[in-house]
Recover the amino acids of this structure.
């Protein structure tokens, strides 16, 4: 299982063939993991990925386990 690489930054375009864009607005993206990529935080497959360049975010609480990964420019929230 290929793991998302977030060291030094995250480039969603490297993984677009396996991620489905669900929603995008200014500074955020919500994607589904169609290929079964592994989480950069725990190494397990994740279901959804929220990527934000914003400094402040508000969203509903995930219904299950989640991991956070910070890069120099963004935060990644991965739900399992």
């Amino acid at each position: 299982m290929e793991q998302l690489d977030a060291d030094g930054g995250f480039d969603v375009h490297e993984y677009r063939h396996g991620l489905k864009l669900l929603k995008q607005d200014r500074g955020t993206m919500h994607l589904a993991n169609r290929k079964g990529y592994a989480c950069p935080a725990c190494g397990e497959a994740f279901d959804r990925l929220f990527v934000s360049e914003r400094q402040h975010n508000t969203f509903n609480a995930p219904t299950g386990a989640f991991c956070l990964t910070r890069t120099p420019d963004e935060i990644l929230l991965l739900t399992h």
User: Anything to note?
Assistant: Residues 24 and 30 are 6 Å apart (CA to CA).
